Structure formats: C-alpha cells, structure tokens
Amino acid sequence: MNAKTRRLVTASLVAVTTTAVLAGCGGADGGSGSEGGVLKLWTHNAGNAAEYDVVEKVVNDFNASQTTYKVEIEAFPQGSYNDAVVASSSSKKLPCILDVDGPNVPNWAWGGYLAPLELSGGEVPLDDQLPSTVGKYQDKVYAFGFYDVALTMFARKSVLDENGIRIPTPEQPWTRAEFASALADLKASGKFEYPLEMGTGGSGEWWPYAYSPQLQSFGGDLVDRDDYKTAEGALNGPEALDWAKWFRSLVTDGYMAQKSGASPNDDFLNGKSAIEWDGSWSAAKNVEKLGDDLLILPPVDFGKGPKIGGASWQWAMSSNCAKPEGARAFLEFTRKTKYFTEFAKAVGTIPATDAAAAQIPGYEPGGRYEPLVRAARDFAVVRPVTPAYPFISSVFEKTAKDIVAGADPDSALGEAVKQIDANLKMNNFYAD
Amino acid sequence: MATRSPQPGATSGPPTAWRRLPVHATRVVLALFFAFPVVFMLVSSFKPDQQIFGDLAGPRAFLPVGDLSLTNYTAVFDRVPALRFLLNSLAVSAITVVLGIVVNSLAAFALSRMRWRGRKFLLTVIIATLIVPFETFALPLVWWVNELPWLEVNGFGLTLTEGWLDTYRVQILPFVAWGFSIFLFHQYFQSIPKELDEAALIDGAGWFGIYRRIVMPLSGPAIATVAILTFLPAWNSYLWPLMVVQQEELRPVMVGIQYFFQLNPSWGEIMAYSSMITVPVLALFLAFQRSFINSIASSGVKG
C-alpha cells in the first residue's frame, strides 16, 4: 500500500469514526410500544412498496382522524420478520400492533404474543370476511386480514389445445387420471423437459402451503384435526402414503424437476414448463405477459375434492400493548371496505369480502381473476389451527423434500408422525 | 556480449514455458471458476429477469448482451434505502476495525512483549474462544445486551439508560475484541526483535511508547490483515443485526438483501444490490492485498 492510499484510507476511517462517535453511537430511540400516545405498528412489508403504501395510507388516515393516538410504522423484510418478532418478544419489546402470517396465529396466541381482539365497531363485520382471513384460536379472534391468496395452476391455452387436453373448470376440475394423462401427453410432445412446474426449489412455508393441500385432496392431512393430539393415521395412513408415492412419481416419471430453478414463474413464462403450480400473486404478471392465452385453472381433484391452502397476512394486537384501547381503535378504524379494496388492488391479492371484490376490475363475477376468488372461497383449507403448526410445518417440509429426493415414503411419513407426536407430547399437547 | 550458459538439465526437457503450461492452465481454470459467479452477478444486474433465466442455458449468462439497462439499479433505490444501509455498514465496520486494531494489538502487545505470570495460559484461553461458534451464544448475548446500562448525554447532563438494543453500539462493541486478531498480532509481534524494546527502555521509553513508536509502526502487514479480517465479518453481519436492530435507519446492508425476497423475487434487482454491496469489499481487499499476503506469509497463519 503506497503512502497516498494509506493517507486516503486513514482519512476515511477517521472521518467515519468521528461522525459516529459524535452521534454518540446511539440509535434513534423510538421507545417501545405506545408511550406518550404513540402506537408502534410492525409490518412485514419492507421492500414491498405496493402493500407498504397502503399500510402507510391507512395509518395516515387514522392519525389524521383523531388526536389521541399516533401510529408509527416500522417495516421489516418478510424473510426476517418472524425472527425479529420472536427475538423482540423475549426482550419484551413487541409493538402494540403487528401483522402475523395466518398459520402462525395459534402459535403466537398460545405463546402469549397476541391479545384476543374484541372488535365491536368497524364498518365491515367479521362475518362478512372469507373464513380464512380471520385468525382464530380456541374460539377467540386474534387477527384479521384484508386479503387472502390462492394457489392455482397456470397454463397456456394454446399448449393444452395443441395436445388435445381438456380445459378444467371449478365445477369439473381434472381428476387424478386426467391429470396423469395430461402430463403424459405433454411429456410425449417432446417440447418440455419437465411439463409440470411445482416450485420444488422453494423452501420454508412454501412446502406445506403448496403441497399439503394435495395431501388433503388425497384424503390425508398434516395432523388429526379432531383433537390435534396426534398425526397418526392422518399423515401416515393409506391416503397419505398414496399421496407420497404420487409425489415421488412426478420426479421418477420425468414430469417434475426434483429441484426447480430459482424463478419457476420466469421458467414458465419462458416456455420451459407447460403447467405451473403457483400463487395468485403471479396472476397479474402472467396475464400481462401471456394475455388471453393464459389459463387460470382450478386445482386437481385427487379424490376428496380440489384443495388449496388458506390464510395470509393478518393484523393483530400484542399482549404487552400499554394502550390496548388505542390499538383496538386503530384496528376498528381500518375495517372499511375501501381499505379491503385498496390492499387487494395494490398487491393483486384476493379481497377478503365480496363487497370489496365487486369493486376491483377482474375480481368481480365473471372477471379475469374470478377463478382465484372462487378457489379461495370454495377450496381453501386453513392450515392446522394449533400452536404446534410451525413445528409440523418444518417437519412436513423436510419429509416432503426427502420423499421427492427418493426416501421410502412409508418410513419417511412414519418418522414425521413420530416427530410430530413427540413434540405434541413434550408440550403437553399445547394445553394452556 | 555476455552469453547465458544453459541451466543444468535445461536441454533434456521441453522449454520452460511449455513445462509451465499445465500450471498456468490450472491457474486460468481456477481464476475462471472463482470469477464466474462475480461476472454472472455483474452482468445479470443489467438484464431484465426473464432474460437472466433465458440466458442461463449458455455462455450468454456471462456476457453483457441482450436488453441491457440500469433499470435494476434505479429499482434498488426505490425498494431499499440502500445509501443509508451502505453508510450504516461502512460506519459500523470502520469503527469495529479501528477499535479492533487498537484493543487487540494492545492485548497482543502485553501477551507478546511484556513478561508476567500466566500470559501463556491466557493466550491459550483466548485462542480457545475461537472454537465456539457465534450462533451458540447469540441468544444469551441478546439477553445480556438488553440488560446493559449506558450513559446518554441529555442536554448538559448524563442519563443512565438500560438496554443497548436498537443502537449502533450494539452492532459494534461485542465484536471489537477478537481472539483471532490477538493471536495474529501476537504472532507478528514475536517476529520483531526484542532487542528494540531493551534499547528503548534504556533510552527511557515506557511500554506504551514502545508499543506506539516501535512495535506498531513495524506491524503494517499485521494491521492490514486484521483490518481485512475484521472488516469482512462486520460488513457481512446478518444474524446479529436481525436480532438486535428494529429501526430501519440503523440496519446494515446485509439485512437489506431480504427486502428483495418477496413472493416473486426480482433477481435483476438482487444482482444489482449484491453488486453494490460487493464493490466496497473488493476495493478494500485490493487496497490491502499486498500487505495481507505478506502478513499471512510472515505470521505463519493461514486461514
């Protein structure tokens, strides 16, 4: 390093150090929660400007509507949001208002992070919402959402027509045999290395969200929902075993990649796959790229009807909120049809009420995105309502990945049941 | 005119250049192997998403061809307060480096140049701390820093506060003292003749004078190495700030990458942001490269 470089580096370091030391090495103390009438709101929307802007608008409207409370937003990136909440709860730094992913509501309620909501006011009654958009645990409401998302199969009409494949409808979805035949035809066309894109390169909650509905359509489930005390029979019964063998066969038959690429949606749009199992969040982009050639198809009926996962992000109040009446006032204020509409419009999600859906072009009856609304309404299955869900979710992810990679389905599912049952027992079945 | 006499054995084998060909070829392959990810990242940062994945099948993935633009870079600034995150990381990393050099070199000086009972045992304990992964004590550390007191300037007075969460200091101070830096300084100081200390003592210098005027000025390569090895983990810090920082304005660059992982990640933007946060690290390494290699070679420490 020559003298000039050394001087430059030294000067830079000194300048930066001096600035920071003068600033006292401190942070901008925001306080915790709602001191002095301030209510902190945490959202998972950092980096997601479309949804964040609506959150900001709702907050600004509330702040302008009264002078008692002031809501301040802190946005976190979605990928690290849950970790931030869990770390903050252990140091008792949770904000008054926070959003929560629907399947986590029972766990966070059981863990004492959330307080039950008693919403008496608000323009929109809770009963008007899609059931999957209201977060309940032990018959108490802990959260509500403005929208839901839906899984669907995207395909090109031209490709299905070319291969003589029937276009399914919500009333008459593909059966298992029809789906198998369609995949065989598409594979035989020689145009697709893998005709089915299932997003197997994903990770985390995507696995139970995307593939447990298919397990349920076969007749299995993640846990016995009668009392949530065992997964025996549900996750390792004959139906579940049938699902596991089918899932693996998609790879061995060459219909699906064991691990799909980093962007399954771009691969579909580039024509690498014929059918894509994806979420409603890709619908607008696909319509934009493929226009009238895009088909939004219902899920396959594997025997027990078509199924998709339900519940997306919802808003809740923390149990350590110092001003619960303020948080409640804010949450009630947000329950206006115009906000339900604006969230869905901005993010391209399915509005939680019919009144909102009627106001959004494409989501009205007969609209371009109506199949998504119908799927959310008719086919959605809420993930198991138990505090054990985060654990069950991680076990299922590992098990399904093992099965796709070639593990023996019987022993893989048996091991999953053993782990889930041990967790339930160890936590005294999550009794309060 | 002087003529070169042939080297012994040179006439029996192929010319030197040919003999070195396999070595050079291996080096080129290795260089390409390590350069390709960086080249891919830089090139992809100028392409739209669909083209990135369309080009993946062939060499176009590494070539700046097709629909190139700065769109991804402008989108980065719309999505993330990138400048703020860069400044935060720069400040946190730079202060950690400066304090780390001072604190660890002082500790190493005492262990290496001064004679006192138990110093070898203490050095062993310090080296032993290196085998404990950070993840194992991250949660207890969160609890601990949440309980720590701090004096805050409040007008003309001082206020005692509790808890370091949501501050810059919580991102800096736990990482100043580092066993590896102490060990590296210690090894380097051992190579400096102790006679210099004795001569300085005779001339009336104190231990701090010897440290400041003799040992540190002779330890440029060790300082450069510690600077790089401290800067890298500070710059790459992800788990810790995720756990202790809630306010957006205090977040470092690595947490910022999470902003891009939405339901449909925009890979072009991810590549653009990754390129932006990689450049400072590459620049630092290039600036200190020679000293870094010298120090690694002379201290007998290999990473």
Question: How would you sum up this structure, described in words?
Answer:
With 432 residues, chain A is of the alpha/beta class. Chain A folds into 2 domains: 35-148 and 312-378, D-Maltodextrin-Binding Protein, domain 2, CATH 3.40.190.10; 151-308 and 388-430, D-Maltodextrin-Binding Protein, domain 2 (3-Layer(aba) Sandwich). Chain A has 16 helices and 15 strands. Chain A has helices at 3-22, 49-65, 78-90, 105-110, 157-162, 176-188, 206-218, 238-252, 264-269, 283-290, 324-334, 337-347, 354-357, 370-378, 389-405, 409-426; strands spanning 38-43, 70-75, 97-101, 114-115, 134-137, 140-144, 147-148, 151-156, 196-197, 275-279, 294-297, 308-310, 313-318, 350-351, 380-382. In chain A, a hairpin with a 2-residue loop joins β5 and β6 (140-144). In chain A, α7 (206-218) packs across α8. The radius of gyration of chain A is 24 Å and the shape is globular. Residues 4-35 of chain A have low confidence and may be disordered. In chain B, α2 runs antiparallel to α15, α4 packs across α15 and α9 runs antiparallel to α12. Chain B is flat. By secondary structure, chain B is mainly α. Chain B has a domain at 83-252 and 274-299: Orthogonal Bundle (MetI-like fold), CATH 1.10.3720.10. Chain B has helices spanning 16-19, 21-44, 49-54, 71-79, 82-113, 119-128, 134-147, 169-172, 179-190, 195-202, 207-215, 220-235, 239-244, 253-256, 267-299, and strands spanning 149-154, 157-162. The relative contact order of chain B is 0.14. Chains A and B meet through α1, α3 and α9 of A and α3, α5, α7, β1 and α13 of B.
